[in-house]
Each structure stands twice: as C-alpha cells, then as structure tokens.
Design goal:
The structure is a single chain. By secondary structure, the protein is α/β, with parallel strands linked by helices. It is 55% helix and 15% strand. The chain has helices spanning 2-48, 58-82, 93-101, 116-123, 135-147, 151-155, 167-175, 189-199, 242-253; strands at residues 106-110, 127-132, 157-161, 179-182, 205-209, 225-231, 234-239. Helix 2 (58-82) packs across helix 3 and helix 2 (58-82) crosses helix 4 (116-123). The longest helix is centred in the first third of the chain and has 47 residues, at 2-48. The radius of gyration is 26 Å and the shape is elongated. The relative contact order is 0.11.
Length: 254
C-alpha cells in the first residue's frame, strides 16, 4: 500500500508540471497573437500610406503652444489698446476676430496618431481636434483620452477617424482652426500645402515637427506663410493675410 502511494506521487507531480507548462505556453502564445494583432494594422497602414507614424514629444508641443498662447494674448492687448483702430499689419484678420470675441483657440492635428499633441493642447485650454486615418491609432488615442486624469483634456478634445484630405472630414474643422499641426514627408507636402492654402484662414498658425513646410517663396512653391518659431525641430508658420497675398501676386505679375 505504501509502495503504491509512493509511485502515485511522482505521477501527480508530473501531471501538475505538464499543466503548468501548458498554461505558460498558452500565455506566451496568446501574448504573441495579441502583439501581432495590435501591430499588423500599423504595418499594413505603413505599406499603404506615405505618412509615417512618429509620436511628437509632448513637452515640445506644450512649449510651442505656450508660445502661441502668449503671442495671442499680446495681440489681444494691442487690439484693446488700439480700440477701433486695429493695426492690421500686426494683427491678422483671423486673430483680430478671435481677440474681439475672446474665443477659445482651436487646435487641429492632421494625423493625430496616439493623441499626444491633441491631449497636450486640450490640457492647456485649447479646443483640440485630432484627425487620424489609422483605426488602431485612433482607438489607442481614444482610450488615452478616456483614461486621462486631466479633466480639461477630456472636455476640450475630440478625436475623429478619417482621411484628412477628404473635405467632409477636415473642411469645417480647418476653417475654424487657429493652429493646425501637420506631420508629413516630402511626397505628401504638396498635397498638405494645397489643403492648408485652400481651407485654413489667413493668420492660422501651422505647426510642423521635424519636416519643413514648403513656402511660396521656395523654388517649388508652397504655402504663403512666414516662419515665426523654430526651436528643437518644432517650427511654426503663420499664414499671411489675404491682402498681403494679393499684393505679392500683383508684384510677381508686374
């Protein structure tokens, strides 16, 4: 009887060991499948699209937006000082209207990725909108928005899924934007420049991380804008007033 019990115990230990191994293999296999499922959309979208995914450092976004907020405050002060005599050479039509109505500034991120820039802008008091065509990135950013501890980030932000070049997705949003952030590569820059020129209002700020935005003064042409900020690979351009653009075109034709 004792001998039989001794023989049974090793078999029970072996069964437990096999069960543990199977559970471990199941966890590893499940984790691998999950990783493949989560990363495959990124790989697929990269193969189909010229737009790369690269998260913009939050501190650089916040620094640039703080610069713009301070710039806007100075414009408001100048507007109040001049009262009914606005200095249109220093205050563009878009920001003059914003100053008079004291509206919340609108921030738009074309290709918002994981939502870092949108949430940063919202936390600073901007009304922030992100447009992302990758379903996985849109889902990740939406979860981040819901889980954030910053109440302002949730209230002031919205994330839309769609193609930024589709007028039904971006047109109305861009026309109200005080600041539009882009992240593009050379092949897409002409399309992005055309989109900005067509939809954004004069005085709108254009933020670009790492990639320079082609300007109209360049050999290949681009947007009519002036560089007002260039720090740590973050650049901000200001679209010129439509009157200035008309004057420039007339000079070219003379």
């Amino acid at each position: 009887m004792i001998q039989q019990n001794i023989n049974v115990l090793p078999q029970e230990d072996q069964t437990r060991s096999n069960t543990s191994n199977n559970i471990a293999l199941g966890i590893i296999g499940g984790g691998f499948v999950t990783i493949v499922a989560l990363t495959s959309p990124f790989i697929t979208m990269q193969l189909k699209s010229s737009l790369p995914y690269m998260s913009t450092p939050r501190q650089k976004v916040e620094k640039a937006l703080t610069f713009l907020s301070n710039r806007n405050k100075r414009m408001i002060e100048k507007t109040y000082e001049s009262k009914n005599h606005l200095d249109t050479t220093r205050i563009t039509s878009r920001h003059a209207a914003t100053a008079n109505q004291e509206k919340q500034l609108n921030f738009v991120d074309l290709g918002s990725g994981d939502g870092t820039a949108v949430l940063a802008a919202a936390s600073l008091g901007w009304r922030a909108t992100g447009i992302e065509m990758n379903p996985t990135l849109w889902f990740v950013s939406s979860i981040r928005r819901l889980l954030t501890n910053n109440k302002e980030s949730r209230i002031n932000s919205q994330l839309k899924i769609g193609d930024m070049f589709d007028a039904s997705t971006s047109q109305s949003i861009l026309q109200k934007a005080n600041c539009t952030m882009i992240f593009g590569v050379a092949p897409l820059m002409p399309r992005i420049a055309n989109l900005i020129e067509r939809e954004c209002q004069p005085g709108c700020w254009i933020m670009s991380y790492r990639f320079r935005v082609p300007l109209a003064t360049s050999r290949l042409g681009g947007i009519h804008a002036a560089l007002i900020y260039d720090e740590e690979e973050m650049r901000i351009y200001e679209l010129v007033n439509s009157d200035d653009k008309t004057k420039e075109d007339k000079l070219k034709n003379q």
